[in-house]
Amino acid sequence: MLTTRAAVVGFTLISVAKTMTSVAATTSSEPRGLHASASEDARTGSPQRRLQRLVGVPGHHPSRVNDLLLLWPEADGHSGKEKSCNKHVVFFHGDIQNFQEEMALQPEGSQWLSWSLEQVAVILGQRFPDRHVWVVRASHMYLHKFSCYHNFVESNMFGAPEHSPYSADFGAFLHLRALLSHGMERADLPHPLQPQGGADSIPSGFSLVVVGFSKGCVVLNQMVYELPGARADPQLSYFIKHITDMFWLDGGHPGGSETWVTDKQVLKELASSGVSIHAHVTPYEVCDPMRAWVGREHRLFIKTLEEFGACPSKKLHFEDEPPSIENHFRVIQEF
C-alpha cells in the first residue's frame, strides 16, 4: 500500500530520530517518561527544546490511558530554562504513525520514519515555538498501523468512529481534559489544569489549540458532536472556552461516511463557539474518485459553517501535484 518513501524533513529531525532511537529501547516502561533534548538546528541556531515521553497517562477513567509526548517550549536564552507559559497544542496522529522504535520494526512503518511521533512533535514545535506541544498516541494500533482512538470516541477495530452526542460519563472532551491534567502533573508543570471543575479549575493564561491529522481528525469530529451538550455542562464549559483553534489536516478514516462533520445542528454550535476553524487538505483525501464522499463532505463542512457566519480558513495543498501519501503527510509541515 505504501510504495514511495517520505522525504527526509531536515537536519533537526534526523538528529532527534537518532537520539530517540538510541534511548527508546531502555525507556519504554519508564513511569516518569524519557527526557531527550531536540538538537539545536545548525542552520537557524534555534534553542533546544526538551522532548519527554509520558507512558500510561490516565484520562477521565483510570482504566483509559494514553501515552503522551511533550515537547516543552523554547528555552529562555538567558536562564537556559523553558519559558514559563500555559499555552498548549494537542496533536492526534494518523494511521502508521507511532513511536520511532515501533515504526522501525514494521515493514510499512519503516518507510515513513520521517513522520514518527517524535518527528512530528519537533515539526509542530517549529510551528508553535512558544507552546507546550502534546502528541497523543492512539490507545491501540490494530495490525500495527490502524490508529484507534477508543478512549475518545467509540470505534471499530480499524478506527472508524461511531459518533455520539455529549455524555457526562464518556467522551472526547472529558478524556482530553483529564489526560492533559494528569499529563501536566506527571511532567511537573507549574499551575496544571484541574481534571474537572468550573472557572476556578482553569489556570491563569491557559489556552489550547487542537490539531488532528488524517485518522486523528475523528477526535475533533467527536468534539463537534459533543459541543451542544458540553457547552451546557458547567464542569466543561469553561474548559471549552479556552480552546482557541481547531485544525483539521486532511481528515480520513476507513468508514464510508462522516469523514467530515455535516450535521447542520452541531456545525451551527461550532460556528457560534468562537473557536477559530482551520481545514487543510490535499488531493490524496478530497480528490480520490474511489472515495468521492470525502471531498463532498469537506465542501459541505466548509459551506455550512460559512452559512452560519463562521469564517473557516481553508486551503488545498499540492493541488498541482499527483495525489500521494507523501504529500498527505507533508500537510503536517505545510499548514
TrEMBL record:
GO terms for cellular component: mitochondrion. Keywords: Signal. The keyword Oxidoreductase does not apply. Residues 24-49 are annotated as: Disordered. Residues 1-19 form the signal peptide. Pfam families: C2orf69 (PF10561). InterPro entries: C2orf69_mit. The keyword Signal applies. Transmembrane segments: none annotated. This is UPF0565 protein C2orf69 homolog. It comes from Xyrichtys novacula (Pearly razorfish). The lineage of its organism: Eukaryota, Metazoa, Chordata, Craniata, Vertebrata.
